[in-house]
């Protein structure tokens, strides 16, 4: 217990003294995971809405793939993205490997199925009678979809929280495609792994406390918006 107490004190000291490296790592973590979450929303919300409303051959297979993707192991995602971005890979010409954009790409692949699956579930929860009533009142298809998304906005905030939580806390993919380079691609999770391997448990615990605090603050803000909207 004393080790955890020392780690918590170290976290407070690092934050209070404004340690430049810790702040740089924290801000980079937020930037990468935030960007990946936003991109996953751009992809996942339309795709989840389409799967919820459309009926086409192969839809059941597509939904099954999305549900499977919600549990993708980050190391598998990291391996696939690394192969794609490798010098001889399909996207090797972009020279993105071991850069923050590569980490954003990997985290987006992890978060997109989560957002898609939860959006699909949120839209399906809206009664079918609501859609029929909107169309009967003369609403166009885009207007109906917009109204449907507004009705499902509260559950969809859970998709944002789940997507962000899934990527801010992952380590496998970030380590594989980012390389944990100091001052460039080192984020809170990979820095924690490094400090643990060095036996610097107090610093590792401090970084973990900062990660938990960051995750809590983001989810608290989204939960506040969700509950305020519900009220």
SSE layout and pairings?
Layout (H helix, E strand, L loop, with lengths): L1 H15 L3 H34 L5 H11 L4 H12 L14 H26 L2 H9 L4 H11 L1 H16 L3 H7 L9 H10 L3 H30 L1
What does this structure look like?
- The protein is mainly α and 231 residues long.
- The chain has one domain (2-230): MetI-like fold.
- The protein has helices at residues 2-16, 20-53, 59-69, 74-85, 100-125, 128-136, 141-151, 153-168, 172-178, 188-197, 201-230.
- The chain is globular.
Sum up the structure in keywords:
single chain, 231 residues, mainly alpha, MetI-like fold, 11 helices, 0% strand, globular
Give a nutshell description of this structure:
The protein has 231 residues and is mainly α.
Whole-angstrom Rg: 20 Å
The parts where pLDDT drops under 50 for at least 5 residues are none
Q: Per DSSP, what share of the residues sits in E-state strands of 2 or more residues?
A: under 5%
| CATH architecture term | Orthogonal Bundle
Largest sheet: none
The amount of helix comes to over 70%
CATH homology-level superfamily: MetI-like
Distance between the termini: 41 Å
Overall outline: globular
Mean pLDDT: 86
Structural class: mainly alpha
Number of domains: 1
Q: What's the SSE pattern?
A: HHHHHHHHHHH
Name of the top-level CATH class: Mainly Alpha
Q: Could you name the CATH topology?
A: MetI-like fold
Number of helical segments with 4 or more residues: 11
The tally of beta strands, per DSSP, is 0
